[in-house]
Specification:
2 copies of one chain form a homodimer. With 354 residues, chain A is an alpha/beta fold. Chain A contains 12 helices and 12 strands. The first copy, chain A, has a 6-stranded parallel beta sheet, with helices on both faces. Chain A has a 6-stranded mixed beta sheet with strand order 7-6-8-9-10-12, with helices on both faces. Strand 2 of chain A pairs antiparallel with strand 2 of chain B. Chain A binds a DNA duplex (16 and 16 nucleotides) through helix 2 and helix 4.
Amino acid sequence: MKENKDMANINDVAKLANVSKGTVSNVFSNKRPISDEVKDRVFKASKQLGYTPNHIARSLVTKKTMTIGLKIPYSKNLTLSSFHTNLITGVISEAAKRNYRVLIDTIAQDDVGIPHLTTDPIDGVIILDPKQNDERISFLQELNTPFVVIGKPQNLNVNEAVPYVDNNNEEMVFEVTNSLLQKGHEHILFLNAPETMTVSHDRKAGFVGAFERNNLPYRNEDNHFEPSIYDDPNKYGYETVYEKFNQENGTPYTAMIVDTDKVALGALRALRELNINVPNDVSLIALSDDLVLSHDTDPQLTTVDLAASSLGAESVKLLFRNMEGESERLNHRVIVPAKLNERASVVNRSNEKH
Amino acid sequence: MKENKDMANINDVAKLANVSKGTVSNVFSNKRPISDEVKDRVFKASKQLGYTPNHIARSLVTKKTMTIGLKIPYSKNLTLSSFHTNLITGVISEAAKRNYRVLIDTIAQDDVGIPHLTTDPIDGVIILDPKQNDERISFLQELNTPFVVIGKPQNLNVNEAVPYVDNNNEEMVFEVTNSLLQKGHEHILFLNAPETMTVSHDRKAGFVGAFERNNLPYRNEDNHFEPSIYDDPNKYGYETVYEKFNQENGTPYTAMIVDTDKVALGALRALRELNINVPNDVSLIALSDDLVLSHDTDPQLTTVDLAASSLGAESVKLLFRNMEGESERLNHRVIVPAKLNERASVVNRSNEKH
DNA sequence: TTGTACGCGTTATCAA
DNA sequence: TTGATAACGCGTACAA
């Protein structure tokens, strides 16, 4: 009965079971066949001593931790959106299929550029919210740590292909914008993500492209990047809409595309206060991931489902391909298509008797 | 230029900088003062070789991983609710304050009883959703791993005090029920959590207690435990309400308390289809954590905020007190009060002209 | 500061 | 085939 004593180790078990260290090791790792009789002795001794193989010592020699990292940057306080939640779920579930677990590591935006003082106890890492010339990417390449980016990396200083998983952002916003233009909306406001995020440029390209395709004039102020001052997306939606729509001479836009579900909620609130009806006065589409939420707004929100869970799962798959060293021959890029869910917040103006 | 070679280790650096291993170690860990000149040599050599201290080797000797585990059981597929999300946020943020990170470990409900084959590379662990006689608790005690339970553990086979963090569930449901009774609701339906979860019994006690206090009859069918068949809480709310309220002779209840926000959404949907108005026909209160959601239902939902983020943060604080060995003298129990947010989904029947 | 034992498994290599 | 032996991985800590 060694109670408060330190845990038993492999030597104690070997001694008690009258076998060697190596045999105990093989019993637990199944690397070599062991006779049932010996196995039994070892298990009995282990149970008696309360022995469990030490994960750390094992990792030291196998160089596997059975863990992948997930690096989530945050701006001021950590707040996980439903996009994050779904993405994390996808990562965890896919990792679990391979008996891997997920180490969540949050970093303040300001610290993104600072290298870690020690290597992480992980076999690979998924990084979120890549910024232009994101220094995390060069660090990881130096350390030779397998990694995958969620979102489109734009590192000009890196010549190798960076593996990443992303939505078809340009195409997705093109399609959404195009469908609005086809429905007779000529003035569309886009509340885009912050300019520092690479995704915002793809989306802007799709937005502008749709106007060009339809031979309609695009004005630069129609694309509105989120200013960095906001840490509350709801507030961003509310204040921006209030500012843009609080005008004497009618509503300047007949449709809006907004970055996230939370921005949409803020926008809805502002429009309600301004007595602007959705969808009759203004149609609204959110690039969103919270399907529960969108069903329970009034009106039900037309959204683009970003399939965050798939993004997470695909990033794990790609990461494992990298970890297995197949990276050279494989696609470095996985595109997860977004899906338009049409609900009640969009109206067709062509049919209207305006 | 050792590129594809293995990473440099402490010996390589020591050799190149012309110092001993120990000195290099101290330069990185700051355990002993080192002259600036030597420090500089070491840093230069490290940079040249791309050396970073190996976290695993360090853990092996310090016996610290700077990581805490978070064990989340799931029933069928892993789905993280907003309660989980907030809780995780609280855990991560509080851990980050101490330079700790969080290893998320999900376990299928069915596997809760199966011991792990190796010790986890963590310094302590937080476990969620304790069940009656949860075997994880005895395992952790055997392994001497510091742990904290979120929710009330009920292990009859364990005599020691189990440290846990919980809401004041009995009191909270008592208050909520009491306030409804005071408002003239005599028939209240409680869609409780599954009977297997310890929390459901505390809540039932508060529910029943409020009837007793008000000298009103409590009927056993008024407390409805969630059957284990559901893995979708929305469906649970929808189907149960449909079944209970789809009757010829008027609505059998004038008020409902439901377990989570998602159950509330399902309940709202069913009531809408049954043409039962909330709150005029039936008042509704959700034991919920999603403040965004509750603002955007129609009507806005009266909820009890479970303060999941605080639950997470407090559990980390308690865990650290345990890890520092102070457990003997300290409180093993932290209660995080829930907070009633009154909104539009509850009506006062005493004032009505019924 | 330096040298060196140490922690705890794994994995050749060798022996039976 | 199975079992035993010894070297190894990578820092830390303590005596010299």
